[in-house]
Amino acid sequence: MTTSDSSNKPLDGRVFVITGAGRGLGASYAKEAALMGAKIVVNDIGKTLQGESTGETPAEEVVREIIAAGGEAIADTHDITDYDGAQALVEAAVKRFGSMDVLINNAGILRDRMFANMSIEEWDDVIRVHLRGHFCTSRHAAAYWKDKAKEQGSPVDAALIQTTSIAGLHGQPGQANYATAKCGIAMLAHITHMELFERYGVRSYAIAPSARTRLTLNSPGAVEVVNKKMPNGFDYFDPDNVAPFVLWLGMRGCPAPSGAVFGVEGDVVRRYNSWQIGSTVNNNSKRWTFDDLQAAGPELFKGQDRAFSPMSEVIKQF
């Protein structure tokens, strides 16, 4: 665990629910948030990246570490892809700590395969854990915050933080299932912003973290990068580097605009723009012909070669 000034508790009293928090980034979020005064529900089902049971209880291990450092936390092993289990996770936070202020959806798995060889099971498993898993927990959190806002007659100060990825924002060969799910999660964050922020005060974000985790150590093209350090010794891909920004999003009154998507790694934060129109052509109130389209092509496609940065180019920036 990293250390924080005991006199400065910017998350004092905030209740965080963090999925996939038994290891890697989720564990880093949980332990750092606890040091900052938050109360934590550490959710982790205890499975491998391939979705197989390990027989371990990583959530309980993280909780023991938090409590030993003077923090407050409970372990939860509900399956986030189970609709009722996700509801039980939210209810566990409210029952134990009296409320829930921040949900960080972090849990995920990998089933990498080139698309022409991918099985339906590999597709369904990844979509289920990422997209369905983010939906189930977010759906019950949203209902809780909606009811709370109506009950108190004023907006809540809550944050819903989804985890997309640079694979989902830039693409990555061999990860059609994973990248598709992560791309969908970025849009989910935008839609929940549109539905929840103005009405109920719930800020909604998506983050694309890059760090040394089980996922990146098993991702094509990433493993050679994430173990490197900067010339001054700075461990650029240490998961603890990502935690402060993510937790800042969950702080009371965080000024980061709701609906935003951020890339976070090392000492770098990037703000992504959502889908934008790159160019427009029209045919002067006439139906298009093939000849018209051929003629308009150069204008329609100009700049396309610069419009999309592949994941490999983002990684090369390091």
UniProtKB/TrEMBL annotation:
The keyword Oxidoreductase applies. Keywords: Oxidoreductase. The keyword RNA-binding does not apply. Residues 14-226 form the Ketoreductase domain. InterPro entries: KR_dom, NAD(P)-bd_dom_sf, Peroxisomal_Beta-Oxidation, SDR_fam. GO terms for molecular function: oxidoreductase activity. Belongs to the short-chain dehydrogenases/reductases (SDR) family. This is SDR family NAD(P)-dependent oxidoreductase. It comes from Diaphorobacter aerolatus.
